[in-house]
Design goal:
With about 240 residues, the protein is α+β, with helices and mostly antiparallel strands. The protein is about 45% helix and about 15% strand. The radius of gyration is 17 Å and the shape is globular.
Length: about 240
């Protein structure tokens, strides 16, 4: 969201009140050995956030076939687990993020761990980008959304999803949970629905506040798409969320 440009070996993007907190998080994660986090480089002379540019492929719509490989899904699950384990004992302030922490606070979540924020080479995950919406929250906050995007848990009519059938969705959901560890498929499904409900509510609320980023997504019909997917998941998987 917002203008993003490459300047040599860096990426420049608009900064906000949340930027210092996000860059602190990224530095802390790199110090803990999480090399999939790009180097945060502060602000440039124009006040834009500067981040290390990472060479590789990113999944964009329509998603390329390599996004749906089982091997990559396993790497996604293991990477999310590394992130969560590394943040359990990190400071989790109540303010300084783009949004309020999500209760119950267990870890610091990336919040948008999707193919379009994953840099890959030869089908393997090498970096996770766009940490702007990081926020303290429960592990399910990340797992539910990752499941929605990577499996993908979308209604058959969703043009952005992968039309693979319920049995294949269930198989890949089990694979993701096994890769992460200590995660139950139905619990992740419940969080996926909660995330979609929140996306609808949050997008509409931010658009009503005049945030141009969300005015554009609501106008493009994204909120309606998430609402339909949430309804389909509830009905298909008997999710009580």
């Amino acid at each position: 969201m917002g203008e993003v440009r490459r300047v040599g070996g860096t990426v420049r993007r608009p900064s906000g009140p949340w930027t210092p907190q996000v860059q602190f998080l990224m530095r802390a994660l790199r110090e803990r050995g999480l090399d999939f986090v790009p180097r945060p480089l502060g602000l440039d002379d124009e006040g834009a956030e500067s981040i290390e540019y990472v060479v590789g492929d990113v999944g964009v719509y329509p998603m390329p076939q390599w996004v749906w490989s089982d091997a990559l899904l396993v790497e996604v699950g293991r990477t999310i687990r590394r992130l969560h384990d590394a943040t359990r004992d990190l400071p989790k302030p109540d303010s300084g993020w783009q949004r309020q922490p999500v209760i119950p606070v267990e870890v610091v979540c990336h919040s948008d761990f999707a193919p379009y924020n994953a840099v890959c080479r030869d089908g393997h995950l090498v970096a996770v980008i766009d940490w702007d919406f990081s926020v303290p929250g429960p592990t399910g906050w990340d797992l539910g959304y990752a499941a929605y995007r990577w499996i993908s848990l979308t209604a058959p009519e969703n043009p952005d999803g992968r039309a693979c059938g319920v049995a294949e969705q269930q198989r890949r959901l089990s694979l993701l949970c096994e890769a992460y560890g200590d995660a139950e498929p139905h619990e992740v499904l419940t969080w996926a629905v909660r995330r979609l409900d929140d996306l609808v509510e949050y997008s509409i609320d931010q658009a009503a506040r005049g945030d141009e980023r969300f005015l554009a997504t609501v106008a493009a019909g994204h909120a309606d798409l998430y609402r339909r997917d949430a309804k389909w998941l509830r009905e298909t998987y008997d999710v009580r969320a």
